[in-house]
């Protein structure tokens, strides 16, 4: 379902309003959207982190990163990503909203710079490798860097019992602060008002910093990738759909788009406040 523009305005896919050419030219940016935390912070060891245990918590700390996209010196988007093993290398699974053109969500932005904030390593340049604008999925590489740990989502045996237990954990990381956070909720099979039958949602309450972040079960198994919607819950793409996309990406040249003829998935959201950069 697509919502009328006179009610919701021009929306970027799954979480952010689109910025006009004037907004970019005048150096206006989205504020109070990139760095807002949710749930419990990793260092607290409280809440969901105490339930996960030290081993799983440490794994999340190592594999979950944050990314930001810049046009010139203006940051236009920030989100979460996950180091995964894919096609014989390690790459970052994240939301394609990171690389969308602010003026046309059906296109990849030009002259875009991607930075990846890696735990204990600082910021490194990211390079877009593949994307699917329909499913809002992207792969970003960090050259000459291999993390000590990654999520082996393709090697994990899909266990039907994952679907029997609705309890899930949404994990995200803020870009500027590097804060890792998590919250828990329940997965549902209801797709409701979403315009894509392959999306579901959970009751996990996240912020926009959690877009592109992983959804796990309490055993640390990857369930899907999160998006954001303030009204209906947290939409996510199931692991099996992501694995099919990863299979399609294999053998493609860099930055090949799969499904570029499809319209991007859109979910209604509240407009964020625009203000000059600090």
- Gyration radius (Cα, Å) is 17 Å
CA-CA gap between termini: 37 Å
User: How many β strands by DSSP?
Assistant: 18
The SSE string, one letter per element, is HHEEHHEEEEEEEEHEEEEEEHEE
What CATH architecture label applies?
A: Beta Barrel
Give the proportion of residues in helices: 10-25%
Q: Could you please say which CATH topology applies here?
A: Thrombin, subunit H
Shape: globular
Class by alpha and beta content: mainly beta
Tally of distinct domains:
1
How confident overall, as mean pLDDT? 79
Which sequence of strands runs across the widest sheet? 11-12-13-16-15-14
Q: Can you count the helices?
A: 6
Main pleated-sheet profile: 6 strands, antiparallel, barrel
CATH class assignment: Mainly Beta
Strand percentage, roughly? 35-45%
Uncertain runs are: 1-32, 259-278
InterPro entries: Peptidase_S1_PA
How does this structure look, described?
This protein has 278 residues and is mainly β. The chain has a single domain (5-258), classed as Thrombin, subunit H. Helices cover 14% and strands 36% of the residues. The chain contains six helices and 18 strands. The chain has helices at 5-8, 21-25, 48-52, 54-63, 161-164, 239-249; strands at 29-30, 40-41, 64-71, 74-86, 89-95, 100-101, 104-108, 112-118, 122-132, 137-141, 167-173, 180-188, 199-202, 214-216, 222-226, 234-238, 256-257, 274-275. The model is unreliable at 1-32 and 259-278 (pLDDT under 50). InterPro entries: Peptidase_S1_PA (IPR009003).
């Amino acid at each position: 379902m697509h919502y009328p523009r006179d009610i919701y305005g021009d929306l970027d896919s799954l979480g952010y309003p689109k910025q006009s050419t004037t907004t970019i030219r005048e150096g206006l940016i989205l504020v109070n959207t990139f760095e807002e935390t949710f749930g419990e912070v990793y260092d607290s060891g409280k809440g969901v982190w105490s339930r996960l245990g030290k081993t799983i918590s440490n794994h999340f700390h190592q594999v979950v990163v944050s990314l930001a996209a810049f046009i010139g010196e203006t940051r236009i988007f920030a989100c979460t990503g996950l180091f995964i093993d894919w096609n014989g290398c390690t790459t970052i699974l994240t939301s394609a909203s990171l690389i969308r053109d602010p003026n046309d969500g059906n296109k990849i932005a030009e002259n875009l710079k991607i930075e990846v904030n890696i735990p204990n390593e600082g910021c490194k340049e990211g390079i877009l490798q593949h994307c699917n604008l329909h499913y809002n999925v992207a792969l970003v590489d960090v050259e000459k860097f291999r993390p000590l740990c990654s999520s082996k989502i393709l090697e994990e045996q899909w266990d039907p019992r994952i679907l029997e237990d609705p309890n899930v954990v949404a994990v995200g990381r803020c870009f500027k602060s590097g804060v890792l956070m998590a919250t828990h909720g329940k997965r549902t099979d209801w797709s409701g008002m979403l315009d894509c039958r392959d999306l579901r949602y959970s009751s996990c309450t996240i912020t926009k910093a959690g877009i592109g972040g992983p959804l796990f079960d309490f055993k640390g198994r990857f369930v899907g990738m999160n998006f954001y919607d303030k009204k209906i819950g947290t939409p996510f793409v199931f692991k099996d759909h992501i694995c099919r996309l990863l299979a399609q990406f294999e053998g493609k040249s860099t930055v090949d788009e799969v499904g570029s003829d499809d319209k991007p998935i859109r979910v209604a959201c509240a407009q964020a406040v625009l203000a000059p950069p600090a």
